[in-house]
Model the fold of this input.
Amino acid sequence: MADQELEGSEPVDLTKHASGIVPTLQNIVSTVNLDCKLDLKAIALQARNAEYNPKRFAAVIMRIREPKTTTLIFASGKMVCTGAKTEYSSKMAARKYARIIQKLGFPAKFKDFKIQNIVGSCDVKFPIRLEGLAYHHSAFSSYEPEIFPGLIYRMKVPKIVLLIFVSGKIVITGAKGHGFDPCETSSLVFYPLGVAKLAENFVLEQRLSQ
Amino acid sequence: MSDVFCSDCKRHTEVVFDHSAGDTVCSECGLVLESHSIDETSEWRTFANESGDNDPVRVGGPTNPLLADGGLTTVIAKPNGSSGDFLSSSLGRWQNRGSNPDRGLIVAFKTIATMADRLGLVATIKDRANEIFKRVEDQKSSRGRNQDALLAACLYIACRQEDKPRTVKEICSVANGATKKEIGRAKEYIVKQLGLETGQSVEMGTIHAGDFMRRFCSNLGMTNQTVKAAQESVKKSEEFDIRRSPISIAAAVIYIITQLSDDKKPLRDVSVATGVAEGTIRNSYKDLYPHLPKIIPTWYAKEEDLKNLQSP
Done:
């Protein structure tokens, strides 16, 4: 089971993803400082795909098609870019927005680009007994079926929050640095912790269906 | 009868406690060792009929260790025969206006007591809820939060900790104005605060359908046999992979069991008693249906009865 092909056409590289599961990145949120004061009204009037409603929110909301992202541009010159699928495309999108601002006449720079949040999802392909997991890892887990159907697992190292569902689907969020791809590391840490407890359920499932 | 050192006999002697006079008397020499001992039991005279100004009750309520000074106060009374001079009648008013450090706490405890009363909860749960609230209040960071939701969440956590969980919907029904979402958020907040304070995370197990069976069944007025069957079914159903909230499973099991008995409860009654929506019970019924032969105990219903059950 460990070397099954799970994602894409290439077999999973087990030296990088020892659990055999590759989380797919869904959203990257990043911030960048353009380092100059901006006139939001002028930007909203001149730029395409920009909306500005000062009564509702004090920032310009701008969108570009490639990469498909949205950004909030504040009067102080700071910018938040969301919606990118990879870290590289988030940086590229932020650069494109900075270019747009430059073309509008503001002396925009590209200071302190930082990725603030990475959201990924993955599937372990077997049902998970959330109660058992909550019992064994009670210090990190919070499982309230009445409030939310998934278990909220707050991992300390790396500092990541996982939403674990009965179906086996997992949402990983809160990852910041991309030095060692915490998204993948967390599923790696989680998988051996969880698999012994949870795989029993999978086996049970198989036997029942026979 | 206890052993105390008597100063006259110069040794430990048997000592008698005389309740009528409040004296501790040495049985050997008759020396009174302590007199006028203060009785700390509750007032034994009751005054249901007496009302008006001269309330002969000599004591106040039990001391509350959670309040700042144990709840002891001195109050300036209103003078008899309606306001003699200006000073004595206003003194009472001015004293009350002074800051009472516990006022917020007292109001909160009163609210918790009202909610607990409406749900019919025992004093242990109420006291625990009070304690939790005080611990959260001690960490001043709870200003500006919806107090109703916070109190409701304290009660919810207290019920959970005493192993008598109440569904959030039940707590919602007695908390004035707090929504399920707000109570859920307040509960997370409290758990985090308590975890920060003690350094060890709060002990609270996950809820199970079985915890609620007894209560839901008696709300519906089911017979003992049906209740027993329902409890067994719910226990067995935990082994199967049914991806539903435990409350929904409980409601669906109750519905199935009542359908199998002579006293068939309509879906609406089960929905009202458990707080689960009718559509949810129907969907849970669909999920349970394939496993029914293994879940329902055989002493309660045979295979044919199960076949008679309507297919979802």
